[in-house]
What we know:
Two copies of one chain form a homodimer. The first copy, chain A, is of the alpha+beta class. Chain A has three domains: 12-103, CATH 2.40.50.140; 137-271 and 423-547, Bira Bifunctional Protein, Domain 2 (BirA Bifunctional Protein, domain 2), CATH 3.30.930; 290-415, GAD-like domain (Gyrase A, domain 2). Helix content of chain A is 29%, strand content 24%. Chain A is built from 17 helices and 22 strands. In chain A, the strands form five sheets. In chain A, strands 6-9-10-22-21-20-17-11 form an eight-stranded mixed β-sheet, sandwiched between helices. The first copy, chain A, has a five-stranded mixed barrel with strand order 1-2-3-5-4. The longest helix of chain A is centred in the first third of the chain and has 23 residues, at 134-156. Chain A starts with 17 loop residues before the first strand and ends in a 5-residue tail after the last helix.
Amino acid sequence: xxxxxxxxxxxxxxxxxxxxxxxxxxxxxxxxxxxxxxxxxxxxxxxxxxxxxxxxxxxxxxxxxxxxxxxxxxxxxxxxxxxxxxxxxxxxxxxxxxxxxxxxxxxxxxxxxxxxxxxxxxxxxxxxxxxxxxxxxxxxxxxxxxxxxxxxxxxxxxxxxxxxxxxxxxxxxxxxxxxxxxxxxxxxxxxxxxxxxxxxxxxxxxxxxxxxxxxxxxxxxxxxxxxxxxxxxxxxxxxxxxxxxxxxxxxxxxxxxxxxxxxxxxxxxxxxxxxxxxxxxxxxxxxxxxxxxxxxxxxxxxxxxxxxxxxxxxxxxxxxxxxxxxxxxxxxxxxxxxxxxxxxxxxxxxxxxxxxxxxxxxxxxxxxxxxxxxxxxxxxxxxxxxxxxxxxxxxxxxxxxxxxxxxxxxxxxxxxxxxxxxxxxxxxxxxxxxxxxxxxxxxxxxxxxxxxxxxxxxxxxxxxxxxxxxxxxxxxxxxxxxxxxxxxxxxxxxxxxxxxxxxxxxxxxxxxxxxxxxxxxxxxxxxxxxxxxxxxxxxxxxxxxxxxxxxxxxxxxxxxxxxxxxxxxxxxxxxxxxx
Amino acid sequence: xxxxxxxxxxxxxxxxxxxxxxxxxxxxxxxxxxxxxxxxxxxxxxxxxxxxxxxxxxxxxxxxxxxxxxxxxxxxxxxxxxxxxxxxxxxxxxxxxxxxxxxxxxxxxxxxxxxxxxxxxxxxxxxxxxxxxxxxxxxxxxxxxxxxxxxxxxxxxxxxxxxxxxxxxxxxxxxxxxxxxxxxxxxxxxxxxxxxxxxxxxxxxxxxxxxxxxxxxxxxxxxxxxxxxxxxxxxxxxxxxxxxxxxxxxxxxxxxxxxxxxxxxxxxxxxxxxxxxxxxxxxxxxxxxxxxxxxxxxxxxxxxxxxxxxxxxxxxxxxxxxxxxxxxxxxxxxxxxxxxxxxxxxxxxxxxxxxxxxxxxxxxxxxxxxxxxxxxxxxxxxxxxxxxxxxxxxxxxxxxxxxxxxxxxxxxxxxxxxxxxxxxxxxxxxxxxxxxxxxxxxxxxxxxxxxxxxxxxxxxxxxxxxxxxxxxxxxxxxxxxxxxxxxxxxxxxxxxxxxxxxxxxxxxxxxxxxxxxxxxxxxxxxxxxxxxxxxxxxxxxxxxxxxxxxxxxxxxxxxxxxxxxxxxxxxxxxxxxxx
Lengths: 579, 579
């Protein structure tokens, strides 16, 4: 090794020892005849001390070192006169006796500090320098710890990791595949997996009982903020289980991850039905860090000659505790927020609950004191609260109110990324009706089984059938989802039919899975967690890009290596491609 | 859970307990009024007992179950009268009181037994059934354990796993890339990584210090036996290290894996120079499970009027202990073996060392007793031994003798796949001269540094420069290799020049890495292990296909899912592809 210790290792007990450290010059401070340098490596920072009086030659040498130069230094550990309690090595410094310059460095295009002056594009281009910054490094270390924690849990539960192939078959159904031309089978293509779904089900047919994989998946979508063409999943499947078994096993996993990585106890993880989630939060991934559940005024607020309400299908409200403190100006800003085209509310009605119990609404012309007290009663409002009301088409207004609820919670500081609240959402509809194609789509995927008690409605009222499925949301973001699968060939055939597949299409796309099911498929179910999303939540960051070492931009480009790129003629010819 | 226990769990202590098991019907034995079934799951086999006298109805029910049916059974654990010591559950059986048929099964196209009657193609097509067989399952479980053991070791050594991207940039140099057309950047392509080489070096520039990843890699080669288009690597890199540090860290890893997975102590792992490996074994991945090192007769066997030797550049021999026991017929077969076109020897000379010490060669006409005793002396032969001799062009005859050595060792049972012997090979040549292109190629890759003591020959005699590189071989197979990297920009530029890259080509292909090296690159080095190969060796199997859950055939096809396949017009159009 070129070093005896790392830069995060030395303590007061080491004083007097001769040590050799390697690292990067982070910072320098000159005080007349003395200079202090911070030497950085992955493990921390150690102060190097130089003094003209004790060693003028080496002070000169040191002063020729610039930021980000790589050096190996030897010296004696001394107690610092000016200790730094914020640094694990803050009690000591090295009195340097020898400097060996390992490599020079150009001046970085942005500062390598926790708060940098570099814009996103330049940091993407020089990602290898951005990765040196503490916040970025800490998130990748957290990602590693999360991976380790997940594996420990699943290994202990007798799950085995099985690697499934990356070069598979394209299925036109669903999201767009990335494809890979086959040179040995000209005119044919592999696809990169969007998930190992069929393979993990085959492994259950093979009797592997408990499978997992932390695995890259690929989806060729039109990129939106916070979507990556390649992403990582914790992919799991179990045999001989029912829904509650899956919920209990994976609740345990997530609980352990938060304890290991954030020393955070998630507490009880409630199980909420899809209907309740929509009714109370207007979202199938509710943020449970705070209340403000929806209250319905439809019954009490109609028929008062207020046309907007009278024409609305649904009138929904939230009660904001202590919300009366919002100024008129703040309320106007909130109204503007919900009227933005992305949310699309026509307007927002509010009703202040004053400290003396009196009520003051923005629609006093239509609603008298008695009418408003009905609102307050439905919303269980207390003096000092604020009632916010939206109205309109049922499903639209729920979505709008969801946005409003999250926005107001944000204003009130209730969405602290260092607090975590998880929940399960269950009993999703099995099928979604698509007006455009005039047919049902699978809400999860075509292998999701109906709830046993709803199976009899598959013929009579398929839209009403609930899925034996479950999603996990944390802080309002979906982190995982799965289902108990169909393992019976007849039921699977019926599903394909409902989804508008002809027998040929089903056979063409899923033939091998359907075949496999004829040879003794066990009851099974599984779940997949978005590993990038989970790490982002654990890191308290909004963007999955922040937890990916080498992310792509919104056009799917890697700005650092400049990919994708054109191929040369020879490569194209070999692949039988003409462009 | 649909079961109270697994099929590998019950013991004599459980007798009297009511249990519920799930699994597949493996086998059935009828004895008059009694029937016994073996119920199988991943964890083992449990015997189910049915008796007409105690429960005729359920016996009837049971007898309707065929092989590979999936059932849930409930019953009472009883002591077996006829115990099976080969089975962990062999002391007990279940007196079944209830059968719930979970799924029927067609008769499998081959038997699901340790020794199956299915040919390779049918087993590939029905891979999900082949995966049920014990030998296949055990190898995948071993693969999981190997993965786990590797991670435990590297995690404990402060390595962190960082995921590098799969959609990267194509480099025309080296092996052929699989490419992925980019829909959002028409006419441009990503490439799938052949290894994360440049990314792991960038991570060192970023200060990550100790990186690893167990990662899929892709190479579009003309398939040979035991090559797969996608394969898995244990990919590692360290900063501030020298060769011996890497050797010591990864020797520790391999040692732990063999202990954990096979309870096998690898013993001392010798470090052999490339020159010695070639001289003694004619191979840079010598099989050290046995001796038979090469002996050179060039000096003593020339000039005896035996034209074949006189014209040969090199005359090389091995001494086969107790080899005099080979019959004439066996020796003829060995001669035929080395004369096969794949090996291409013109012939083989032998010399028997009789028990009485007399010598009898196949070329007695040319070599008298005295001449032959010189052979025996060079080869340190003992009575009862056999000397085998090949001659010809130096590098060709070494390769042939390597094959002969391995073949004879095989015949003598010295290549037991349950014995393991590892070694390091170091001091490879840095460059290989390619006659066709009249230029040097990098023996490892262009980032491999020369041995410090040889660096001064880079200008004067580049062919003589040795690489600061190391390979690990186990039982004659290469399992890993790596090098200390060049981290100095000038040296890297010199290397590219030696390899015939123009400045533009180097910049075009490796520009981002070269740039990164200008911002403070630390000394670093790394290694990659072939994970499939390592698992194959640990499993005692010759083929990496045996340790891959869903392998492809020699044409790169997955026979089960029938990939690659043609795309539909819509998909091709979206990608701007015309075929």
